[in-house]
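Hello again,

I reread your note about wanting to compare the complex against the isolated chains. To keep things tidy I'm splitting this into two emails, and this first one only covers the full assembly. Below are the input lines as submitted, including protein chains and any nucleic acid or small-molecule components. They are followed by the predicted structure of everything together. The single-chain runs will come separately.
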Amino acid sequence: MFKVNRNSWWKTSFLVLIALSVVLAGCSSNNQNSQNTKGNNNTSSSGNAGSVPAKEEPLKVSIMSHFFQDTPPDKGGEVQQRMQEALNAELDIQWVSVNNYEDRFNVTVASGDLPELVLVRDPFSSVFRTGVEQGAFWDITPYYKDYGNLTQSISETAWNLTKMKDGKNYGVPRPRPTEGETFFAIRKDWLDQLNLELPTTTDELYAVMKAFVENDMAGNGQTVGFSGYVNPDNMGNFSPFISSFTGANGSSGNVEWKLVDDQLVYVDTLPETRQALEYLARAYKDKLLPADFASLRSSQSVDLYKAGNAGMIVEKGASISEYLSAMSASNSDVDYQVLYPLTSINGYNPRAGGFNGMLAIPKSVPEEKMKRILSMLNTWMSDEAYEIQQWGIEGVHHKVENGKKVIIEEKFAVDSIANYNQIVFKHGPYASSYGDHHPDEMKEAFGKIQEERTKSSVPDYSVGLYSETAQTYLPEIRKKTQDLKIKIILGNKSIGDWDAHVETLKNDTTLNKIIEEINASYNARASE
Amino acid sequence: MNSTVTAANEKTVIPRQKYHLGKRMFRDRYLYLLALPGLLFFLILKFVPMGGIVIAFQNYSHYIGILKSPWVGFDHFIRLFTGDQFWLLLRNTMAISLLNLFFFFPLPIIISLLLNELRSNRYKRVIQTIIYLPHFLSWVIIVSLTFLMLSVSQGVINQVIEMAGYDKYPFLTEPKIFWLMLTLQSIWKDAGWGTIIFLAAMASVDPQLYEAAKMDGAGRLRSMWHVTLPAIRNVVVILFILQLGNIMDVGFEQVFLMGNGAVSNVAEVFETYVYRMGIQQGQFSFSTAVGLFKSAIGLILVVMANYMSKKMGEEGVF
Amino acid sequence: MRENLGDRVFNAANITFLAVVAIVTLFPIYYVVVVSFSDPTDYLQRKLVLFPTKWSFASYEYLLNNKSFMRSIGNSLFLATVGTACSLMVTASLAYAISRKRLAGRKIILFLILFTILFNPGIIPNYLVVKELGFLNSTWSLIVPSLSAGWFVILMKSFFDNIPDALEEAAKIDGCNDLTVFARIIIPLALPAIAAFGLFYAVMYWNMYFNALLYLNDYQKWPIQLVLQNIISDSAAGALMEDRLTQQPPPSEMLKMAAVVIAVTPILCVYPLLQKHFAKGVMVGSVKG
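Full-complex prediction:
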């Protein structure tokens, strides 16, 4: 009745295209073939956007990605038009709100109704793994090396870490810097006012938060030492506290495995986690944390910081602009001191895996098209094409001053150009600590912090490890544990309840099986 | 059940079939044409999904297809009943439903009794207009209003509490009062709207009855008790049955939207669990099994409640 | 009328109590409206604003200039108009057909419809059917599954039950068939009821949240309720914090309140109409099916 489905529409147009090509085959087949090979060579060797063969039909591709700002970029916007020209593609992007991307992704994969290029935020989630096992996605291992930019701009580590358990790549990793990962960032201006040093241990951290609150640095009685949020199944932004005690890193908020003598140990059963919980419970009782942190959403916890009510947050240096612009509304002489990254706490700071999720192509896409999509990504990563999303349009999103491009922040934000970074992103080694457009003084300070951090940063050893039991049962365990953690911090349950829970965990056959499988997977990878 | 349905919907005796069935159908072809879109709708969007419940007995995978997906019997149900989530889900669902039944259910009756006693019709209409309004607001709006009223950081109520010199109270993150919060929300949304049916029933009471009661020296309260209440008894019983039958349904949107990390232990009910396992985690077969369990219990409850009310001499719902 | 003291006390208490009920009902809406219109600095100083000292439209200006917010309002208006029209057509014609006692098979149809009220197979089977129909991530995924509902059909049917056969027969003698009878005679006759049901459907479509949450991926197709929910409490996944490469100041409390007010406004606008009709809408056929 109302068949307006994208797929069927696509199928129809595809059929029409095929029919047309059959009709025209007699006169143009040779010609076309030569063009195709030429196109492939071109894009794979240099990724030069300008050399896309003019006569090739633009590649129509549907993409599903998340977006961060309060509105996604406009489909008909001029930036997208220019990008499409450079990519010789027609992008039909489903922008999914970052808040429920995971849900949308899971149900989309489970139901098989996939667009042609999909952002996979967590390549090791059970849903994606199941999809891969069932043959839902293209194994791009034999193909991706043909595209120069995909191997140059994306580190080998990232390619290696995103391999699935069969050792193959089912997606193009989204490259991210390894150092300067999201960690505590503090109001150094407050520290200076109080003549305090940057904290380096959890105890110093506590003293600092306490000093902030006791001196009511916000000046309105609303000061909290730290602002953050938790997720239903993990500690979210509070994980760095626990990691500072345990020294274990994780990803996507789930910090679960610590490498001890070449064995991966389930972090929640460690005494350090218990210490961390007691620490947080004390902090909550002393009103160092927001009273309603358990119900705060990510943006709300950030709001508290932006409003100048919180002394510390979990953030990366490069994100400073949004805080500066929010805070300068009420106080014009704030500078980069308001979001000052800490080097390490108890000698711990996190190291990233060099990627953040990846882009996968469903098997429902024909091979030829899959190659064209890879080639499009390759072109997208070329300087010429990437420049469009990096700077926007001259005179609109950036201007040229003294031969240097300067972003016009407001317009750039309104058109939410930066969201294209969620699909394709290129970066230098310091991209997490600062951006090109930041003041030199800050670049120097934050750069030094990053260099210092590199010496002690801890990677997530569990990335990519696989346990079949974990797929079904770990989510339940996570949720139960997380519920208890929150209650202990809120003071509704005692630490004795935690000890009891840890005992149950230790004797839990399911969890022990998960631990066994994870370690087997780790050893298998180590022996490779 | 078939007979009860027909009995309720079919008061008049159908004239004997005068024509052959085929002829009758041809005669009424345009009527069928009118019914067709609706019938197709019910067939495709209501009955086909009923067939879809077979995946509760499979390990359904889209990539294999419903026909070839392996059969697992009652595995998913066993997982549900033996998992420790089950009792939690049952407890939360029951608690929310029963609180609603005890605190929410009587309120519309009381309010409509009071409205019925108002002398000024204009005042009555004004009050009615106001208290019906929240029924038409979505749960998203109501939960938004709740946040803006009650949250610790921004809620106006907590602002007042603080001004009065007390400590702010975490209304939204305190598990102890979570169920109560839901009940209060339901009351705010629907207690006023609920009066509409009782008021209509009261309007049909013969005014002479009140006069007679007055003559007998009955005061306001006594005539309420002896005249008004009996008049609405039937409606009360029917609504009570409906409520009992719906005991497994606590309303996804409200609970889902009110849930947060601090209260997740008391906020997980069957509906949210199905959503979490099915839509958020993509475990289609397992969550279909959970949903099927819930629906089956609901169906049994309604039929039983209906049967019981008939047994007690009241009219049934169907 | 003679009233004794007890009666007077009762009356006064009754009037006061109901006034309190009304105030409690109205206060949240009133408060949100007032704050959304008041001056941001007043609000930020945490004064308890019960009446704006200075009016300000800043939040509204922001929202009305916000593309995605306005787009979602457009989406919802489309739903509320096109969806309501489709739903009314499907529901009314089916209800009318099965209200005619001569229709063979109506008892079976009625039973089946009643059964859909009593038994819901759950969200996953529904989801899979919508998916197989190819409606996922399209606006039709919000309209088609809501075209009709058991209760609506049965309520409407009991309204049509009251239309005597004689009317129809007279028209048939004039050469009308069932279709033309329905279009020319029944619909005009049932207009008040159709208006009432139309309002209910419109409110349902405007308030639609869950189906949109299930079926729509693309943010640009979201209706107002989802966007509002996103504005009010924007929940986040853990991956988020690693990825804040982009920036834009998120909406303040006042923006949230203004968003709520805007989302409520259409309801408040049709509410007088609704109120006029809903006695009919609900009471047609009373509680009984």
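For quick reference: Chain B touches chain C through 101 residues (CB under 8 Å).

B.
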